[in-house]
């Protein structure tokens, strides 16, 4: 973890304006992924590049179904 760069980023759902936060982790390898809104199921964020996101969770409420990792959603 010492040489890992983490950045907290915030997103809002384009459909219902629900706010989310996720942690961006820089990688040497290319990653792709996406996050969907837990309220309306709209795609809130997609990425493709040398970074990955995890820790995706709503800011206003935290449903217990959200674990520490939310990866590989297509
Ligand atoms: Zn939404």
TrEMBL record:
<protein>
    <recommendedName>
        <fullName>C2H2-type domain-containing protein</fullName>
    </recommendedName>
</protein>
């Amino acid at each position: 973890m010492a040489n890992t760069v983490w950045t907290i980023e915030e997103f809002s759902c384009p459909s219902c304006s629900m706010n989310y936060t996720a942690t961006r982790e820089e990688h040497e390898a290319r990653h792709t992924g996406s996050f969907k809104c837990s309220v309306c199921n709209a795609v809130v964020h997609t990425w493709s590049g040398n970074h990955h996101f995890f820790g995706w969770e709503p800011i206003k409420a935290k449903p217990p179904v959200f674990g520490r990792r939310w990866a590989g959603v297509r």
